[in-house]
Specification:
Elements (H helix, E strand, L loop, with lengths): L8 H29 L13 E7 L3 H12 L6 E8 L5 H11 L3 E6 L9 H11 L4 E6 L2 E3 L4 H6 L8 E4 L1 E3 L5 H22 L11 E4 H6 L15 H7 L5 E4 L6 E3 L5 H12 L7 H26 L4 H25 L9 H21 L7
């Protein structure tokens, strides 16, 4: 500590910030990230628990015609697929009728448009839950496709008596362009967080593109009643409310992934991010705290590192600490991108590591300036 007193107060503060932010980053990647990286693959036990797959669709005839057959042709002996046609004005009902002729385990229900009532996705999801015949329900979206014909089988391997929720990985299809890499990196990093926190006994969210839970759990918590006034959150807010240390399991083997069509413009992606981020302030206070600490520490880490290096202060030690953090970061991200089958991202990880806190700051500002009024 004596070495600090040879500098003025500003430099001392910067040095302390650099040390503390590095320590927080180290804790995040060693305690959270490493849990995901080194978790052993679960051995399947031939579980055949009946499953209801629920898909909410609004004007999704094109996606349904392309993706729904992949859901309906899973290698699983006992499941139904329920599509909730939520006020669609396209040919969704025609597509569903055609598919029902070929797939007897496909069921659908329709929500008629009501000029005096604008419903969100939570209403459609609730309709799907009530229509489900089975205790275990597996949710995905109309623009999602299973990564393999063993998707249901992989997720159902966790349908055991002591578990009520199973978190899956919902990634995005790879496409040309840098925006696609941004979207997939952001998805990968968020998954690293929510899987990691779940594995240390602090589950806080899941994604509706790939999420399973019990019907009885839904009714135990009165469905989405606690956050019915919030536009989003049919997935993460419900998990945040219903998850405990012991009732959640995770599954992110490649067979268990789903893939969605990513946004094609920065504006569309920001709109999507605004919808996702808008629910995080409603998480339990402990989750809000810990989720805020990581990006803040990352921002402070980079800014304090640059300040110390520009002013040539203890540059050997600063550089050594910096390289230590970066090695851990790149190792964890490298293995995580492999486990999540996100190719071509690792080489760009450093740029995204710097830029992502600013993207979220931008989204936060936009959400406080205006509100969204639709679920898709």
């Amino acid at each position: 500590m004596e070495i600090l007193y040879q500098f003025d107060i500003f430099v001392r503060v910067v040095i302390v910030i650099f040390i503390l932010s590095t320590f927080i980053q180290f804790l995040f990647y060693s305690l959270i990230g490493m849990r995901v990286v080194f978790r052993k693959k679960r051995v399947k036990k031939g579980n055949t628990e009946p499953v209801s797959v629920i898909i909410c669709a609004r004007d999704e005839c094109s996606n349904l015609s392309e993706n729904l057959p992949l859901v309906l042709e899973q290698n699983y002996p006992n499941y139904e697929v329920i599509v909730v046609n939520d006020c669609s004005e396209d040919d969704t009902e025609i597509i569903l009728g055609q598919l029902k002729n070929k797939y007897p385990h496909l069921r659908s229900t329709i929500i008629k448009k009501n000029g005096s009532f604008v419903n969100g996705k939570k209403f459609a999801a609730t309709v799907g839950v009530k229509a489900a015949s089975h205790e275990w329900m597996l949710f995905t979206d109309a623009d999602c496709r299973p990564a393999s014909p063993d998707w249901i089988d992989a997720m159902s391997s966790h349908f055991v008596p002591k578990k009520n929720i199973v978190l899956g990985y919902g990634g995005y299809l790879q496409a040309p362009g840098y925006l696609n890499k941004w979207i997939r990196y952001d998805t990968c990093f968020i998954a690293l967080q929510y899987f990691g926190f779940a594995l240390i006994g602090m589950p806080y969210m899941g994604v509706g593109r790939n999420l399973a839970y019990r019907k009885s759990l839904f009714y135990k918590h009165n469905g989405f009643a606690a956050h019915a006034h919030i536009l989003s959150g049919d997935d993460d807010l419900f998990v945040n409310q219903a998850a405990t240390r012991k009732n959640v399991d995770v599954e992110y083997s490649i067979d268990a992934h789903t893939r969605s069509v990513p946004k094609r413009t920065f504006r569309e992606w920001i709109w999507q991010k605004r919808r996702h981020v808008s629910t995080s302030k409603y998480y339990k206070s402990k989750h809000v705290f810990w989720l805020g600490i990581e990006p803040l520490s990352r921002l402070l880490f980079w800014s304090s590192f640059c300040t110390l290096m520009i002013q040539n202060i203890l540059w050997q030690y600063t550089l050594g600490v910096f390289l230590f953090r970066m090695i851990i970061f790149l190792l964890v991200l490298g293995v995580a991108t492999k486990k999540f089958n996100e190719r071509g991202l690792w080489i760009h990880a450093t740029y995204f590591d710097i830029a992502m806190p600013f993207i979220y700051l931008y989204v936060f500002i936009l959400n406080n300036l205006s509100k969204q009024n639709r679920w898709k």
